[in-house]
Amino acid sequence: MFLRDFLQCLWKAAARIRSHVGGTRRLRNSCVSRSCSKSSGGQHFRSSTHILSERGYFGATVGEIAERSGLALGSIYRYFDNKEDIFLELLESLVEELFPSVNNSWVKDKVLESLRESSRRYLTTYYNNRHFIAGLLEMSAAVPACAERWWKLRQKTFSRKAQYLQKALANDVLQPDHTATALATMVEQLAYHWYVESEKNGGESPDLEVAAETISLIWYRAIYAGAEKD
Q: Which residues form the DNA-binding region (predicted)?
């Protein structure tokens, strides 16, 4: 999970400080990287993941994050001004994992199968990060910087999806940008309802395969089914 790996990077940065290796470069410019995300985590990283995911933005404190990570409080403040900075970094990392999770899932001439795989990947990533996503949404409702960052990252994703739909909707009355936003928002809200709201309120949610099939069929029937009949 990206959050655990991010905290491992934080730990490594603190280790460099203790050994007088490296400078004062901010974590946001170096640590949340692909090379760091491939590292394995330990118990202190899992503990930090738990406190951020379970307690959310308002429940977690920088002191608790430092304690669970095995870091000195000053080490964290050397790279981040406050808790908001930490969560904003994690928000961007989450979106970079969540929305592009469908990459490389598309197989030529296998539209429905590709949609199933991309839906499966998205839902799996969302489910694995559901508690942290709930905390980020809580934060975005109260912190303007988070809401703005979340908005911009989502718009970037919608634009990418609109590009994918340019060819499929070339002769359709539907506009790619509006269609991409509508379908992507539907999937996002479904995932939130199934994996965050239902869990919180004791509701039921479909298993992964049923959920992925539902979403992929809606996409397929809305965009591709008519074109294939023509």
A: 61-80
